Amino acid sequence: MFVVFAAPLLSENAMRMVEAAASLEGVRLGVITHDSADALRHLHESVAHWQVQDIMNVDQLVWATRELAFRKGPVERLFGAYEQLQVPLAEARATLGLPGLSVEAATNFRDKARMKTLLRANGVPCARHRLAKSVDDAVAFAKVAGFPVVVKPPAGAGAQQTFRVENLDQMSRALAMQVPSPASPVLLEEFVRGEEHSFETISIDGHAIWHSLTHYYPTPLHVLENPWIQWCLVLPREVDSPRYDDIRQAGRRALEVLGMTTGLTHMEWFRRVDGSIAISEVAARPPGAQITTLMSRAHDMDLVQAWARVMIFGEFDPPERRYAAGAAFLRGQGQGRVNAIHGWELVQRELRELITDVKLPEHGSASSSSYEGEGFVIVRHPETSVVEQAVARIVELMRIELS
Questions:
Q1: Same domain? 202 vs 185
Q2: Which of 286, 315, 398, 401 has the most beta carbons within 10 angstroms of its beta carbon?
Q3: Mean pLDDT, all residues of the chain
């Protein structure tokens, strides 16, 4: 089977996906990207390559896929993991007559205002919102919902350009950076107070057949607002616990409403102080923030390769969850370049048997612009409480000094 994977750049994460897809038996892989073929040199001639100038341009995606088909044979799948690419990929598949998520469904996942309107109309719990086409429209929503409110672009990803505003003065400053207009509206949401989580689901032919979830400590927006905070993610072992019955039901219903067919989705949701839940948003792609690695470690398997198999063959064998897993993200303190790493020796001495993955910055490297920070440490253990204590201990002991 000849299939094509598309990614703007062949980043470390994208290359993991390329290698995973290329390793599947019976798969011949083509790659469409902005990068040159040099990045694929280590795969020799097993991967076909086509370079484009603008991968978000549907015409270029269609042209590149047809050129690869002319050289390598009929293309049977066209897919990618980059969130902003999901609608162009769906439009290209429609033109080429290829299976996969429809244009309508891809738009439901990508347009967060449209998503929330659909969810609320179908009784799925989510935060109140408004797609503001003017400053007056934004102010009117804030007066109804009450401050604080969250301001963000309707097609954002990874909490980019997302702000919590506490009053009209802060709202004015936030809207000055992304001025709302009929052609370029801004999404406003009520600020939900409570614990934030993610909910990952694998679906085959419209049926959710497997799920995972994580806990954020603290919430991602709080992390973005405070660059010095070192934060954690914990993937509990007890994902089938009755305490998650409500999100499992609401999450599956959300995917039905949005039109999910086959793939891996990443949902962000809240548990309010009163115990009720609210879905924030859903992405039709693999999760970031090392969640895929956490799922791999919790099940002793390669979730990236499993995702590739889902996207290519529509197959997934739900694994046994053997561990809880957690990630502690290390964020630089101060400004400038990495000057020192404090506490790593002590962490190794205390937690060596729990650690599965480590990424530490090099001395002198520039500070990271990513919310993941300068590095991370991943741990696992059969007991969730042990993992929770371990990641808390890591962020307590370790410090990345910038100067």
A1: no
A2: 286
A3: 92
CATH of the domain at 353: 3.30.470.20
| Banded model confidence at residue 371, pLDDT cuts 50, 70, 90 | confident
Four-residue CA torsion sign, 247, 244, 300, 13:
positive
Structure tokens at 50: 């086509």
Q: Which domain holds residue 141?
A: 128-190
Chain CA centroid to CA 65, Å? 26
CA atoms within 13 A of residue 178's CA, in its CB half-sphere: 22
Higher confidence at residue 52 or residue 225? 52
Last-in-domain residue among 157, 190, 223 = 190
207 lies in the same domain as 322: yes
Q: How far is CA 215 from CA 163, 210, 304, 350, 382, in A?
A: 21, 18, 21, 23, 17
Q: Check whether 156 has a pLDDT greater than 70.
A: no
**In total, how many domains does the chain have?**
3
HEC states along the chain? CEEEEECCCCCHHHHHHHHHHHCCCCCEEEEEECCCHHHHHHHCCCEEEEECCCCCCHHHHHHHHHHHHHHHCCEEEEECCCHHHHHHHHHHHHHHCCCCCCHHHHHHHHCHHHHHHHHHHCCCCECCEEEECCHHHHHHHHHHHCCCEEEECCCCCCCCCCEEECCHHHHHHHHHHCCCCCCCCEEEEECCCEEEEEEEEEEECCEEEEEEEEEEECCHHHHHHCCCCCCEEEECCCCCCHHHHHHHHHHHHHHHHHCCCCEEEEEEEEEECCCCEEEEEEECCCCCCCHHHHHHHHHCCCHHHHHHHHHHHCCCCCCCCCCEEEEEEECEECCCEEEEEECHHHHHHHHHHHEEEEECCCCCCECCCCCCCCEEEEEEECCHHHHHHHHHHHHHHCEEEEC
| pTM recorded for the entire structure | 0.89
